[in-house]
UniProtKB/TrEMBL annotation, chains A, B:
Superkingdom to which the source organism belongs: Bacteria
InterPro entries registered for this protein in UniProt: FAD-bd_oxidored_4_C, FAD-bd_PCMH, FAD-bd_PCMH-like_sf, FAD-bd_PCMH_sub1, FAD-bd_PCMH_sub2, FAD-linked_Oxase-like_C, FAD-oxidored/transferase_4, Oxid_FAD_bind_N
Name of the protein in its database record: FAD-binding oxidoreductase
Keywords: FAD, Flavoprotein
Domain spans labelled FAD-binding PCMH-type: 34-215
Length: 467, 467
């Protein structure tokens, strides 16, 4: 049984005044306004203060909800029911602690905003490759806690792949100093990767050693109009055969996303006079001596020759390349303004994607008058598959079909050996789905580990596993 | 308390005759002949047979030692004391289960030999990049269990980075089917990476989904004579600035290793008339349109200009490239024939390596007449730091100094925030060292996880953690 973070509990905390923040509305809601939480915000200013806070929560059996940038989409940062939690924000721990340039390592507080880390890397002519739409507000702790993905996973891996070491505070307040900066370290179990992606249920990440990469010498981008998702996949194989790891991103877009932008805004420039049904945004980063433009021209010729693409625009400047990316990154905002019935962040074995898209459309059509915007990180097999009301209709009209839509898509994903959460995590929103679809042995292993590391269940209760 | 795998226990096992192998000497000793084990070899022919075996061991509290290729150097596969274990070999599960070419995925039994997986990938024009000296006998299960490293980690990551999914049998015989082939899957804790590197103490890996890579279009290699380890590091930065991820391997070699080969064999061709003190072997893999030879020539000029290198040989054919690699890969055999007092597989933060090498030499010199062969995967910060008898003397003469030598080096590594096991693992040989140097919170987390997943402690007892 957990207890409220009430005035009495707060008054007993051995923390400086600065740690007690006003619990404003911003901490209690999430980007799409679908959940509303409760709790009392505490923002420790150091790892030691996090440790003291957790020890007190452990002793009093008070739940702790880690709050990072607040950009998560699965309610991992919002606790609606149960005892009133401490909302633990690391916004006061937002410094780059150290930069080891010759090692290509940056050590950051978990409260660092992603864009600040990207900038610190760029300032010394390096790349921190994690990149996603919310990078201006998402913080490192949450990005690692949820193993965030984004647009560069194809080339550089997800958040997990960027981490060399972690500092974390466990449920009982013990500090794990695992903030090494080694490329190779086989001394026991991989606790780092266990904490990454555990969504704050096994420990609170307070710092991270992050790996920096060399910046590609030359970059370029193009958008090709392709005949079908299968053609997009064949194009991916073609470009990988041509420049291997030089493909930084390979994003699928459907006309529906641009139609939503035209209908509901915000306005973006699109490169085609007439919107193609299917487009791919290809981003290349190549070593000196190679030309992305030439590579993309060669690719386009080969793609037309192989009957994969029928139109294409190659960015002729960095500004135009950024325009392509702005279009891609604005699609989610168009979706939000339109208002989906149900959104899905799924991954599918690459070769099954065309069948998934076709079969998904068939099954959704059976459910009623709905529109689908299917787009995303095709190179990773990760699609954002969102279902919307028919033209002129509102999502409220579909309220009683929401769970059926979700179930239809997730059942299909499961049949096809895919994942019901490719990059967003489980949070509280997908706990039931995980319980339904996950391998039973996996669930029992996770429960055993949770019980071993947080026996009272104070860390982010109700996330990933049912309480 | 654990019980012997005695005749009575074996007679009760519900397994086919083929699973009962003769317990030959090969299963009881290790490459350098330093440990001698005991036990009864069982080789199940399927995941289901592994499951039945483990359930029986769990019920009877009989220990299980997983035996893969038998090439491990830290006695993880050799149990000398305690109850007589089942030696679990997966040699009968050695098939490639499936090849998903458009997905660049290969699914293998854990008993597959690494060279066979490499060949299966090469046969379809792909690369399985894990590569190390023992690849002709090491098997996938052991390579993943120990998170093996090797020569291509700089570019492609260690064994962990090659895995998309696992199938494993837990201590109680339960099968975890995690054999997905997704690039992104954020559905709960990262059990895959927890099992990888756990050295058979948390579960028995029976199958793996492995990621294949495109083969570099063109490859090339060179050996440069450099002035010092610091010059080698500066050269690494130079070549990474030039070709970024195009550096596949960057290996440091010291003259001592070649002197041992000259003294004790086996004979190898070396490219320099007079051996330099320090050399680096650089291997490049580049996309079409670039020339490795040109890149290496440009690099050599820049390296001489910057006073980093003073001699160099660029491989003029694939045969000569292979000769360079044969020289590198034969160094461990020269070491074995010479006979080390103490061998160390360490990693150090990259920028501290020159100081480590200098200080290590100073401290070892104080201990007596010894020679040092320091070589390895410089690009990963991973050095094999081996200490040998002085000229004309034998390792037996140093028997009572062995632990002092080891302690001296490991203390230095620990002072410099390095790892006492970069790629070989802990096994039984380094359990005391881990207990001495590891963060106490890390040790207690590991014990809690071990207790949660293998409460009786039947899986590889005495490995990583003291029993």
């Amino acid at each position: 049984m957990l207890n409220d973070a009430d005035d009495d509990f707060l008054s007993r905390l051995d923390l400086p005044d600065a740690a007690f923040r006003e619990t404003t509305e911003a901490y209690l809601k999430e980007p799409r306004g679908r959940y509303h939480g409760k709790g009392r915000v505490i923002a420790p200013g150091s790892t030691d203060e996090v440790s003291r806070l957790l020890r007190a929560c452990h002793e009093a059996a008070v739940p702790v909800v880690p709050y990072s940038g607040g950009t998560g989409l699965v309610s991992g940062q919002i606790m609606e029911s149960g005892a009133k939690p401490v909302i633990l924000s690391l916004e006061r721990m937002s410094e780059v602690r150290a930069l080891h340039l010759t090692e290509n390592v940056l050590v950051a507080d978990a409260g660092c905003i992603l864009a600040d880390v990207q900038k610190a890397a760029a300032d010394v002519d390096r790349l921190f490759p994690l990149s996603l739409a919310s990078e201006g507000s998402a913080r490192i702790g949450g990005l690692l806690g949820t193993n965030a993905g984004g647009v560069n996973v194809l080339r550089y891996g997800n958040a997990r792949a960027q981490v060399l070491g972690l500092e974390a505070v466990l449920a009982d307040g013990t500090v794990w100093n695992g903030l090494g900066r080694l490329r190779k370290d086989n001394t026991g179990y991989d606790l780092k990767d266990l904490l990454i992606g555990s969504e704050g249920t096994l420990g609170i990440i307070t710092g991270a050693s992050l790996r920096l990469m060399p910046r590609p010498a030359v970059e370029g981008a193009a958008i090709f109009a392709v005949h079908s998702p299968q053609a997009a996949l064949d194009l991916l194989a073609l470009v990988q055969g041509q420049v291997a790891e030089g493909v930084s991103a390979f994003e699928l877009m459907h006309r529906q996303g641009l139609d939503f932008l035209a209908e509901s805004g915000p306005e973006v420039r699109t490169p085609f006079a007439e919107q193609p049904d299917w487009m791919v945004l290809i981003d290349l980063g190549l070593p000196a001596g190679l030309s992305p433009d030439e590579a993309l021209e060669t690719l386009f010729e080969a793609a037309v020759e192989a009957d994969l693409a029928y139109d294409g625009v190659i960015a002729r400047s960095e500004a135009q390349r950024q325009e392509f990316w702005t279009m891609r990154e604005t699609i989610p905002e168009g979706n939000r303004r339109t208002g989906s019935i149900s959104s899905h962040d799924v991954s599918i074995p690459l070769s099954s994607i065309p069948h998934f898209i076709e079969e998904g459309r068939r099954r959704i059509a059976k459910l009623g008058d709905m529109r689908i915007n299917c787009f995303g990180h095709l190179g990773d097999g990760n699609l954002h598959y969102n279902v919307f009301p028919g033209p002129g209709r509102k999502r409220e009209e579909y309220a009683n079909q929401q769970s059926e839509v979700k179930r239809t898509i997730h059942d299909l994903v499961h049949e096809m050996e895919g994942s019901i959460s490719a990059e967003h995590g489980i949070g509280r929103a997908k706990v039931e789905d995980l319980a339904r679809y996950a391998d039973p042995t996996k669930l029992s292993m996770m429960r055993a580990i949770k019980q071993a590391l947080d026996p009272q269940g104070i860390l982010n209760p109700g996330v990933i596993l049912e309480t």
